[in-house]
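Per reviewer request, we include the raw input and output of the structure prediction for the construct analysed in the revised manuscript.
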Amino acid sequence: MSDFMSVTVGKLLEQVAEQYPNDQAVKYTDRDYCRTWKEFNEECERVARGLMAIGIQKGDHVAIWATNVPEWLITLFATAKIGAVLVTVNTAYKVFELEYLLRQSDSKALVMIDHFKKNSYVDIVNELCPTLKDSEPGNFQNPMLPFLKSVIYVGEDTPAGMIPWKELYTRADSVPMKEFEAVYNSLDPHDVVNMQYTSGTTGFPKGVMLTHYNIVNNGKAIGDCMKFTHDDKLCIVVPFFHCFGLVLATMASLTHATSMVPVDLYSPVKVMDALQNEKCTAFHGVPTMYIGMLEHPDFPKYDFSHMRTGIMAGSPCPVKVMQQVVEKMHMSEITITYGQTEASPATTMTTTDDSIELRVTTVGRHMPHVETKIVDPETGEELGPGQPGEFCSRGYNTMKGYYKMEEATAQVIDKDGWLHSGDLATVDENGYYKITGRIKDMIIRGGENIYPKEIEEFLYTHPSISDVQVIGVPSERYGEEVMACVILKEGCSMTEDEVKDYVLSSMARHKVPSHVAFMDAFPMTASGKIQKFKLREWAVEHLNLQGAASAETA
């Protein structure tokens, strides 16, 4: 197709820098970091040569463990310019998860910051690599991690055995431009550029191999749906390590030469400051981020008049929240997208031209050049409009596969190239999709199929409820029963019976929660996805349903 971009990530940055050399590319509001496209491209090139100087070659894997700091973005483009593969590390990982990822991904270098919240990365790395502090920087040896040679530290006072980030800039001088250019010009858009580990809600996390072609074209399609232009400014607080930050934000910005305003860690005030002070026109977030701002006592003091578009995704978007974002944050052209890391990630999306009703009740139609369908999970047969089944997609955006996991790859990509999402969905006569839940999220109560999202959407309409998750819990009598986990708005109170009566007033009796729990927060992955399986595990303990749970698996 002529409208595909056949270009590497590094080359595209160079092209944008040539077209808009003096325009703002990246601006942080909480630190002194602002770069034009020309300055940013040159900095990424210098760091790329610095990586070459410490022995990083085409095809090598470089892991990054950091929040949305400038060095994260620089590492993304620097590795892309020399054909190295950036391995993104979840900021919430602890020692067990980090060891698994570094070993499974064959990472040769790790770029890291000092800590995230109460998680000391330095302590974790020293626990995992006890001989690192006695090693010559860049020459670490550990039979448990045979590939890892260098740990690069972003920050002041570099710990023993690590390479200071700033040293990459000086070491770059030892690599001639000719040597850099030879590698840079040898790259193919179909090379793997990025490896992201899926959240691992089932089994061990798997390294999803994405190519330049995958993420550049998906980013372009996303930006097109939002009518992104060079005049837009996107505030990015969703994590870079996740497709939401890396593709929906960074690649959508790069392909449209849109200025990026990153925020390293989410806080409602930090984000609202950035939106107002930089006159951002767009914002990406998971529903809880929008809820946090809308419910913040200082929200009315901020000016959102320059806002236009953005994305709400990552978990089902409550209709009420969406309407408030449109009305109170002026995001009249906000969109919803749906996808999965294995699809780079977006497969369907609403556009700015869709009616507000379609934008709050569906995840849009298939994206350009992506085929989509609904199949019966048991038979694989394609289903018609209105029939719930598994969502599948096929196209340029499908991953190359899971790294070193051929069997797992074959389980999700069938012989005809269709990627099976594991998500339940329906499609209407006009091609608009609705995601109704995970195949294993579906609650089957006494033979009745219950879709948690339907009950969640209804409970969101209650004035006292801030957030809600509906899960299935084991039941000896019915197989499964409905449980509602509720977060109340500040200052509000409700009883268990009030929640049940509210559902009963408008929904079928079998959908009324048998159990209600009031909570302060939900267990989440670092990328903002709610871990329903953890809620379920907690509920089994809390309600003493171990007997029913063992009967279920017998």
